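Exercise (ungraded).
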Amino acid sequence: MTEQLPPDVIAQLAALDSEITPQLAQASWALLTPFHEKAGYTAPKIDRDLAYGDDPRHRLDVHSDGDGDDQAGKPVFVFVHGGGFVRGDKHTQGSPQYDLVGAWAVRHGYVGVTMTYRLAPGHVWPAGAQDVAAAVGWLQRNIAAYGGDPGKIVVAGNSAGAVHVASYVAGQGGGDPARIAGAALLSGIYQIHDPAPGEPEHVYYGADPDPAASSLPGLLDTTVPLLFSVAERDPDRFQREAAGVVSAWLARHGTVPDLVWVEGHNHMSTIASLTVDEPALGTALARFVERHTSSADRETAQ
Amino acid sequence: MTEQLPPDVIAQLAALDSEITPQLAQASWALLTPFHEKAGYTAPKIDRDLAYGDDPRHRLDVHSDGDGDDQAGKPVFVFVHGGGFVRGDKHTQGSPQYDLVGAWAVRHGYVGVTMTYRLAPGHVWPAGAQDVAAAVGWLQRNIAAYGGDPGKIVVAGNSAGAVHVASYVAGQGGGDPARIAGAALLSGIYQIHDPAPGEPEHVYYGADPDPAASSLPGLLDTTVPLLFSVAERDPDRFQREAAGVVSAWLARHGTVPDLVWVEGHNHMSTIASLTVDEPALGTALARFVERHTSSADRETAQ
């Protein structure tokens, strides 16, 4: 569980341009996939394409250890992928994207869930948050059959996926977000200004977003435990967002939020670090999940 | 290496009042010491009370694995204790304070060093920084004999110790801080305002500190790699300092600094987490040391 990447691979990662491009995604995954393959990136059992709604994108995969005689009641780790609001999938055939996340969850003793959601420009704000809410609702009704505890659901999102999870936690997508056990917001955007054409937010929020579209006020208000992360080599925009969360959190709560600085990684490689480079993110993420799904914590929290 | 505390111990830690008092120190160490004893908190070889200067407090202990046939060239991890500028020691007989830190370093493959320094009110700013500089100078000349590489010295400080290390890195204590491989600043204070009588800084900096006493400008300027940490249950003052570093770092460098949020721990238990609760701090701290003392990083850095 404490696999680390060799220093020369970290050095190669660090040498990549940090700008978010298809080339960065390709190069980052190419560097790490040999390690994913060596460690294994598929859980023993994957139930694919379960429908949590009517749209063809309302699908999720459940990753489990396949032991039929499991005692139920495991934490449930849900992953919402990124892709600039307009692309991305829960599963790409022959690739660790993102079965890896499900396999990571199962290794840690959780049930893993990877989900898709409706995309812009066909579906705009708050469609992503609504889809997260719908998926969580489906899991609350159905995950016990896969060994998961519906009261121990932690939802994680990366990039645009973090935007949707944050928006869901802030109540923009309906449902009952206060019932989840935690949310992990990896390299997300929480303050929406007026996006310029060409910026990823433009296609999802429009040129003149609803003033209520920023999730930050709702994140400051929520009782849901939150973990934030920013990659060492995340672009400026994400660095500013992370620092903005720290400032706003201090002003509101008098404390620094749970923030993981993902050492050595970039916007694309953060999630790819799971299993193969656990000290970067996985160690802290697993600790967050375990803390907020253990009975001891729930009795003494706050 | 991935020992974790049981959730009920974390819950007991979290239930302690976070105010910095002798009671908090006593209760925190009492909770963790059984785990230190189980894991072992002394390195195979400890060379005690080596003099790095003329004052009786100019002493350091070197912790090593005692293998005489070791190849030299290990990273050197130096620890500077806290104690409100007026107390504290590198070693308390029959206690893991702070042989534990030396033992942690040796487990990770480093040479460990624990050091004392002159105390206020007899010795005021910048005596602490001068003593860190003197100890580092001594180590640069002598640590090879203990298996350490004088070019791979990482200096860590906790609380008042972090203040002294930060001050040293900022150049306030003389020496040549740019030659160290990194500094870890755990729950420190980097901006010195006018301390009120009774505040710990008052006795060390006086009521009207030199405007140059704040280390933050120097920390923003240095080429020395820095890791900061703040404990989840650090008091307000330390929360504000950590958030202040994030803001200042963003303004200066456009990025978030390497900041470890020490989950579940308080001002006193942070350093006690080493070895027995590695995900809290030790995992990130070891990664920091290894990154900045490995050849691969040094070739590609910046």
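Further reading is listed at the end of the chapter. For now, observe: The radius of gyration of chain B is 18 Å. Chain B has eleven helices and eight strands.
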